[in-house]
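Hi W.,

Here's what went into the run:
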Amino acid sequence: MQQPKPIPSPPAWADRLLRLVCPDDLREELLGDLHEQFDQQVAERGEVTARRLYAWEVIRFCRPYFIRRRFSIQTTTSTTYSPSFLSTTMLHSHLKIAFRNLWKYKLFSFINVMGLSVAMTACFLIALYVHFELTYDAFHTKADRIYRLATDLKTESETIHYDISSWAFAPNLKREFPEVENFARLSVKERLVRKGDLKFQENKTVFADASFFSLFDFKLLEGDPKTALSEPMSVVLPEKTVRKYFGDSDPMGQTLLLGDEGTPVKITGVMQDIPANSQIKGDLFVSMISYTQHFNKGIEQEWGDFGTLSFLLLKPGATPDALADKFPRFLESHAGKMMREHKMGITMVMEPLRDVYLYSKRGAEESGSRANVTVFSVIGLFILLIACINFINLTTARSIDRAKEVGVRKAIGAAKGLLARQFIGESVLLCMLAFLVALILSTLLIPGFNSLAGKLISPGILSNLPFVGGMAIAALAIGCLAGTYPALVLSSFEPVIVLKGRFIANAKGVLVRKGLVTGQFTIATVLIIATMVIYSQVDFMRTRELGFSKDQMLVIRAQNGSKRNAFAASISGLSGVKSTAASSSVPGGKNSQAASFMENNAGDMQGGNLDVYRIDFDFIPQYDLKVVAGRAFSRDFPADSSQSFMINEAMVKVLGYSTAQAAIGKRVEQWGRTGRIVGVLKDFHFKSLQETIKPLTFRVTDWWNGDLLSVKLDGRNMRGVVEAIKAQWRQHNPDRPFDYYFMDEFFDRQYRSDERFQTLFLTFALLAIFISCLGLLGLASYATVQRTKEIGVRKVLGASTGSIVSLLSKDFLKLVVLAFLVASPLAWYGMHRWLENFAYQTPIRWWVFASAAVLSVTIAFLTISFQSIRAALLNPVKSLRSE
Amino acid sequence: MGRTYLGEFEELVLLTVAILNGAAYGLNIAEELKKRTLRSINLSGVHVALYRLEEKGFVQSELGGATTARGGRRKRLFSITAYGKRTLDEMRQVRNDLWGSIPNLSLS
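Here's what came out:
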């Protein structure tokens, strides 16, 4: 049976809108007319057009006449109304009163507006930061279908979580599983790039598959996105790289020389600069086929060689979990034999692209911290909350001054609702003022904020207009919310009592205000304690004995083998140079990992993927590393270059030996070398203090590695010595840039993010203190004014200045102490959790709390004394004369 | 003349109310105007004009009976008041005088 066709009806939302804007008494007739017209139009022009016309007609009804009438006081006569709230006369009067009040109580107004605008600025900047962090990689239109293919590698001793995968994974996945639509692999390398006289060591030379531009939304300004990276030896440059090498001339079709051997590569495209909130960054993008077919032929068949970031694009509707379930069989069929031979288990893991930046624990060029985002959001809200509390506090406290005004207004017939609206209106006005100030402050602060965060979070306020709009709406909402409580309190005054002049603030209101002040001082104290703990942790990390010498150590990116040796020999004679040592890695930097097998306590060959330092004979003495058992590598033992290994104490423990001595002479197989352990080094921090010291193996450099040359200087005339070294470099390597850094700065660079965290926290703590002090100042000055007469009488009767100051301060100091008692456990818990991120932590000492307490009480006392001392010094004649 | 100001559109609406005499309500006034003036007329404008006219005392209104065509909603029916009629008369008089005063008027 066929369903009867439903009767056409106008859009329901339009009717709701009409109900919202049109006065209740007119609703029936207006809806009636509209519906009748709709029915006609359905008959004449069809339902679709009629609905559109209907909606348009309703929108036309949103005109001031109806809205004004809607919100006016309803009268009984049919279509007349009496204007009240929005009538221009009353509005004028209210505005005038509002501005007069602002002007009369300049200090109060200033505190209110300043407090709010500072808080709004902080919140605005934090919102920018949080938004920036949360939208990483969100600009790719296919982001929800792109997954990063990462690898877990399980060895006998540990499981390593890589962010990279094998070259073979992605192409074979696409071949075998229809749900994989496409893939792109990226391999970030460091390459020397030359063009004529220009030569740069490009840290982010990225080899990328031809599909790169179809997977990701990086725009090509020139060149064809489909073919730009499909030919061997083709390269796509971002605009900034183009400027660096070509200035303003057209780069298309030109060539650059890539790598030490200077392979010419042709420029086939120019891409837009990569946005700041992209994980994938690069200075130049070379076609992957150049790598897999030329520079490293055969790498695509290596299932056990992990060195490329792989991204998979799944077909729409494909479920990643279902695909992941098929991975074990896939790996087994391709790499099962290899895994068993090497005693390693490979697991492939897919991570959604959007989650990689904030959530993935795997290593990455850039990674955000979900915890930081949360912490800052909470702080931002706290600061805003404190400012709102001040606002409510001050306005309510001031209410008594305006009690007479309210009384008079009521006596001549103002309704409670009207008064409430007047006061809410005033608070909205203040908030809008604060908004304007905040806007100016934010504009000024954005550049500083960018450098504090170390990222280009915002190029300027004009590029964040939606946020400005959001802030305006927030200001409006704060105005309404923060104004509501004072408005209700004020509008409910009894005119008779108020006008008789016997009005006293009720006890309940006082309690609420005290509670609010305690609340904000709690927040400020938590932030003070947190800042101190963060400072002591960062200080702890920077000053801790690392186990090696990092001072006056220059590290130069030299080349391998004989070239490096020749250069080292040429500078070792320079005055100011103490010694040189070559290695493949230095503390605080990256190091290779190698599949290694070592004889453990049980006599088995224990396998594992271990950190490797390849060092020459001078490295151990130059870095001041202590040998705890056996001996260091030495030129006296020719076999050291091919058969000897050293390990650190952490390695000894992993192997199960009770003493370092026991490990000496045990067998080792690693990267084609078999040999024995000749010495054990005392543990030193080769990574940041966030990590525990991991097992580490040492072997002597080969001729093809060890490109880092550490130069120990004697510390005199550093600049001159560096210049001299540079001159030698130019002679030896005219076609390579002189690339160097100082070891201590390099190592401390690891704490940069912690230092940023510390600076940010300090800033916010200062802000919170500032805002709470403003609040306290306002309240204290109010209380003092209230007690002017009392103080006068006391002075006449012989009270000393000191006693009056303490009388006025006591009440508030009690609140601050209470706030401290609440804040301490909260801060302790929070900071305890934060410290858990670090393997080596400073203890939270008692004096942190003690000094926070002293600090907050002192600040509070100083704030209050501003008012109380003035009040205490006032001549009693003045204060008592007024009646 | 201390007469209340009457806008051009309001005058048109007032005239239409007079034409429809007693049966005038928002929608049919709008349609009548659309037919006669070939302008695009929207309901909300007509309604605002009607309510203003009522506030000024040129028209009066009452709620009519319910009809099924409007989902059972009643219409507000407008009729012109004596004051409204007089005002229209006066305006017409003023215009006629003005027209008569134009020299060499050609009506071709």
